[in-house]
Amino acid sequence: MAYEVTATRKRPQAFEKLVGQEFVVSTIENAIESGRIAHAYLFSGPRGVGKTSSARLLAKALNCKNGPTAHPCGECENCKEITAGSAVDVIEIDGASNTSVNDIRVIKDEVLFPPQASRYKIYIIDEVHMLSNSAFNALLKTIEEPPEYIIFIFATTELQKVPATIRSRCQQFHFQLIPLHAIKGCLKEAAEEMGIEADDDALFWIAKEATGSMRDAYTLFDQVASFSGNRITLEGIRDKLGIVSTDKISNIITLAISGRRLDAIKGLSDILSDGLSVEQCIKSFTDFFRALLFIKEGILDEELLNMRSEDIPQDLVSVLSVAQIEAAMRTLLQLYREIRYSISPRFELELFISRLSSLRDLSTPEELVRKLDEIRENVTNGKVTVVKEQVQNTVVLKTEEKKTEKVAPVETVTEKKEEKPQIESAPVSSIYTDDEDDDEEDTLDVKKEIKTLTLDDIYSLAGSLFDAGDFAVASALNDVTNLSNNNGRCELRTKTDKAAQQLKNNLRVIKGNLLKMTGFDSEIVPISTESHRTASNPILERIARDFRGKVVFEEEKQYSFQTNDNY
Fold first, then answer.
1. Tens digit of pLDDT for each residue in 541-551?
2. Is the Cα torsion angle 466, 472, 485, 532 positive or negative in sign?
């Protein structure tokens, strides 16, 4: 007996054998049993999901000797002829080969003659979207009011190309992609019928590569079975078809993230040396990061992952955040679009692997803002005290617990100003507090003749308080844009209400330190000049405020940063 491919041998011969199309099957069966048979049907959907097979089953159900019935016998002469494709009254037409209006005129002439040996004369037109506009127009009247013994069944993979005038005259059925587990079960049944042992992971890979098409799955199964002998294994598939394994992909990503760039690039070179293209390699990396993201979100369904969850190392799931995985996927998708214009696509892929070593350090703007808020809250609540010490031209920042030290270069003064008494680098409480005795003024080295203030005095005090650790008051003084000395008092004009309120809450500390520095002992009145414009972007406003800058509204929904040059 001649060899028959699995897709043809396993073609369903009854509606109950049609896999993954429960809605179509139930609707057609109910319509046949109730006698509501339409004169035109339109089957649409992806390739290899059973459109043509359903058309033949419908023709068999209508022309069966026991019919019309939803369960044709398959044994009568009409059923056998339809199964073999030799039925005189069931005409199958390839729409891609018969596209002209002349071909449709032949059909219009033939419908005038009743069926010869069957109940209905059925026309099955496959790939109907390939017909020309003139052919569609010539078919309109015929499919709208055909003779009672004529039934049209159209099948197409591109429903949008079928004119609305045709669709409105047909009952439409949309076929869905077949679930992965259903394809896997059919492949297992086919392997058992052929006496072939097949590993579960090998059948899973074949079903995944079919992407919802049963015909594609059977075709790939036949190819794999031809070189696998009596046993189909995933390792054999990888060796023969040059497929990269998930283990190799995860190993390269693990090496790159751990900082072992050289080993990761060597692993990539081994994959490319096995014959895998750069494009396919990028797709494999993208599929891996996609599965990693889904597992990170708690999705373990194999049909969504397109790979088994146990193939994903838990170390990678725990070490990478969702934002970092999404950033890697965006980079891969952009890389796939750019390699067509690249001098060397391989260099682009190697550069991506090299950059993976810094993926763990990636932070989103939201995370940076949250960390800045935590630092500011810790400083405000006194959980962290910043102390500046002069140690061999370095500044040492210490916390209360003295667990960590951060060393930074000492700032150098580029412009010499008029010498004034300086405030020692110490915690804010040691600069000036409400509990200090007034007798200490006798020991201060200040210039009593200075009775007015300038902006330089305010900014100098701000810098001293910042060095001493009082960031809140220093930031408020830095927001002073103008001042005026009138009638023995000084009015400080700030850019924001918050800065003015901060100055009011710390007037005694400010006046005490200004007295030490300049001898000014008059009244100080903070005044806000804020226009109360609502911030269009709170995140940008917060970042600008933490860096002692501001957001300038140049145009609608456009922002730019300006920082104070004194820092």
1. 777 777 767 66
2. positive
